[in-house]
Design goal:
The protein is an alpha/beta fold. It is elongated. The two termini are 50 Å apart.
Length: 721
């Protein structure tokens, strides 16, 4: 292949080896290459969208209507066959994933279903907006429409020549950019090898092994034999001719860089069958453009989503799996490079309600998987383009007996390998070692005393402002309710922790006071504050009109949608918005004395209300059909009771739960101090840090600093501490 510099292959191989050695030697010092690696990826994207638009318009527009119809007829079957092979391989890999039992989500995600507006994703109502915001599916649809319209215009040659020049120019720029791939490869690999934690690799090793195995089966076994079966091209020779392009795709992770070489290879193969047919040569670019924009290799991102569902013990049901493939298909339409993959994954995770933190795990696996996904795309684009081109000229060799025989020979080793892997199970178990907030041990340096519910504390009924008394006695009394996770609860180490408790500990520390935690009764909270049993309530106390008449509240610090908790069987019948209004016999559980009790009485006067002493009673006694609760609290409870699920009714039906810190009426100085203090904590970043820890479940923010990554420089030569 003249356009391909073989020396560049060896340069990239050398850059890979040097990058690995550099990362191992210097360890975390290699992170200095991170911005340079990001810049390299940005450089690779310079021509992606312009080339995409020009290649589609030129490739489709130069065809005649009859040619396009012929390509469509001949191509649909083989495109469907490719998708079938991909989806079958995906489910084969999912079948081999070693499912684990008894684990829990380590963090929280919003469980509210995401409304997918595919019209905004696919309809280019404003092409300039789509170009500016990188809405690739809409850009592809617009380019296809322009290309199809050009097929019906007779005097289009001058216009097509402009696009031909643009495609040639962008191809040359891409070739220039590809010359720096050895440098970019070194920068990315050195940074990834030097900074990735070995424990992280262990956690995702099973996914990486199965992912690479599945793609290698398609790249080096299934598709070469498919081409050999239909086009009478030797499988070994096909792999040999593709190898330089595969290596380029592996190292750059940008398939679009490979398009000029793919087109040249197909032209060379087709020329052997049709040496003088210029029409066949002109078809190739259009066919390659169409195949390039189809979601082929990019569909394999669904394997990671299945892995994440196992990793977080959140299995996908049949409806979720269907939604996964539809979302992945549409968001991968015209996907170009890593950025498009990440955008597609973010959308899919949000759609399915899986943790957004999974993006970080995906980025960790990219050094091991992205190159193989690019190789898969190259093999399928090239093979499909060749097969469809030959099919348009009646050059495929379809013999039923030979196809059956070769299919059996191709599938036999795959089935045998699957049986062996499933029987002996040599793969590492999928293990999420991240602690959840219930298992995490938290150390607070400030002294704290906790009173038992049966304990009594002398009330302090006086006209003295609570702030003055706190500063005088050096004692802060905080009312808490341990049934309010993730805001206030007792963890596995019998520590009273949570989002609100973190603020209680910090408030006592900032005031230089001893902290006393006093049991709080939601129903009697206004009276307890007035009696001076505690100075402030800090356990997910909701604002409502009844409470505002009796106590002062700080500025709201959190808002969350109100939801219902039900078991999975009930959820199926109640998932439709408005279904609650149609079932008057539905028993609604509410914790006595909470704002949810008042809200349920107002919104559901015809439904029987089941008063509960604690939230735990709902899960264990099962007297109520559903439980009304704030979303953040609901998520923490279904983690402990995974057989239950959250139902999001119509937002206009329930509204949102607004939380604040109550103090007694007349405590103006304390209330003013509290509001100013909350603003200060927000500006210092304390509020966001606690939200990340207790609400989003990012427990790594509270654990000890990670030990530095192993490196030769630090651990062998001991040149750096």
């Amino acid at each position: 292949m003249k356009l391909f510099r073989i020396s560049l292959t060896w340069q990239m191989a050398l850059a890979t080896v040097v990058g690995v050695l550099f990362g191992l030697f210097f360890g975390e010092m290699s992170k200095i290459f991170a911005p340079w690696g990001a810049a390299y990826i940005m450089i690779l994207k310079i021509t992606t969208i312009p080339y995409l638009v020009c290649a589609i318009i030129h490739g489709i527009g130069q065809l005649h209507t009859a040619q396009a119809i012929q390509i469509l007829k001949k191509g649909l079957f083989f495109i469907g066959l490719t998708w079938t092979i991909n989806i079958a391989t995906i489910y084969l890999i999912v079948f081999l994933l070693p499912y684990r039992a008894g684990s829990q989500l380590a963090n929280y995600v919003s469980t509210e279903p995401v409304s997918i507006d595919f019209s905004e994703l696919l309809i280019p109502d404003n092409i300039f907006y789509a170009l500016t915001n990188n809405v690739v599916p809409a850009i592809v649809i617009f380019s296809l429409l322009v290309g199809i319209s050009l097929m019906h215009i007779r005097e289009k040659n001058p216009f097509m020549q402009i696009f031909e020049v643009l495609v040639g120019s962008l191809t040359r720029i891409t070739a220039w950019i590809s010359r720096i791939t050895p440098i970019g490869t070194f920068l990315i690999i050195a940074n990834q090898v030097g900074t990735i934690q070995l424990a992280t690799i262990k956690q995702v090793s099973t996914y990486i092994i199965l992912y690479v195995l599945g793609i290698c089966l398609i790249v080096f076994w299934i598709f070469p034999r498919l081409v050999s079966m239909l086009a009478n091209v030797s499988a070994v020779r096909w792999i040999r001719d593709l190898f330089p392009i595969l290596l380029l795709a592996y190292t750059t992770n940008v398939v679009i860089v490979c398009l000029p070489f793919i087109i040249e290879l197909i032209k060379k193969e087709v020329q052997q069958f049709l040496p003088t047919d210029e029409r066949a040569q002109s078809q190739i670019q259009g066919i390659v453009s169409v195949m390039f924009n189809l979601p082929l290799g990019s569909l394999f991102i669904t394997i990671f989503v299945f892995f994440i569902s196992v990793f977080y013990n959140s299995p996908l049901n049949l409806a979720s799996q269907l939604q996964l493939f539809v979302s992945a298909f549409l968001t991968s339409l015209g996907a170009v490079g890593l950025g498009a993959w990440i955008n597609s994954l973010s959308f899919v995770l949000e759609t399915l309600g899986l943790p957004a933190e999974a993006i970080n795990i995906y980025l960790t696996t990219l050094p091991f998987t992205s190159g193989f996904q690019s190789m898969l795309s190259v093999v399928e684009i090239t093979s499909l383009s060749l097969i469809v081109t030959l099919a348009c000229h009646q050059l495929l060799q379809i013999r039923l007996t030979r196809i059956v025989r070769r299919c059996a020979f191709t599938l036999g080793p795959v089935i045998l390998l699957t049986i062996l892997l499933k029987s002996f199970n040599p793969l590492p178990k999928i293990e999420n070692t991240t602690q959840n907030i219930f298992d995490m041990c938290v150390s607070y340096a400030h002294p704290v005393s906790c009173l038992q519910p049966s304990s009594t504390l002398a009330s302090i009924a006086s006209d003295e402002d609570p702030l003055s008394r706190i500063l005088r006695t050096k004692t802060l009394r905080v009312g808490c309710h341990l049934d309010a996770s993730p805001f206030c609860f007792a963890n596995q180490h019998q520590q009273i922790v949570g989002y609100d408790m973190a603020f209680a500990y910090q408030l006592a520390a900032d005031l230089g006071c001893q902290l006393i935690l006093v049991p709080m009764n939601y129903q009697q909270m206004p009276e307890e504050l007035a009696q001076g049993l505690y100075d402030i309530g800090m356990s997910a106390v909701s604002l409502n009109e009844q409470r505002l008449e009796k106590v002062y509240f700080s500025n709201p610090y959190l808002e969350a949608p109100l939801v219902f908790i039900a078991n999975e069987l009930k959820k199926r019948t109640l998932s439709k918005s408005g279904a609650f209004l149609d079932i008057p016999q539905l028993r609604i559980g509410v914790v006595k004395g909470t704002s949810y009790e008042c809200l349920a009485e107002m919104l559901f006067p015809d439904n029987p209300l089941i008063p509960l002493t604690s939230i735990k009673d709902f899960f264990e006694n099962k007297e109520a059909d559903v439980l009304l609760l704030g979303e953040l609290e609901a998520i923490s409870w279904i983690i402990r009771y995974p057989k239950f699920a959250i139902i999001h009714p119509d937002p206009d039906l329930l509204g949102k739960d607004t939380l604040g810190y109550p103090v007694r009426q007349g405590a103006d100085f304390f209330l003013n101090f509290l509001n100013q203090w909350l603003t200060l904590k927000k500006n210092e970043g304390f509020t966001q840090a606690q939200y990340n820890l207790w609400v989003l479940g990012k427990t790594e923010t509270a654990t000890d600093q990670k030990t530095p990554r192993w490196s030769i420089l630090r651990n062998v030569l001991h040149w750096k501490k």
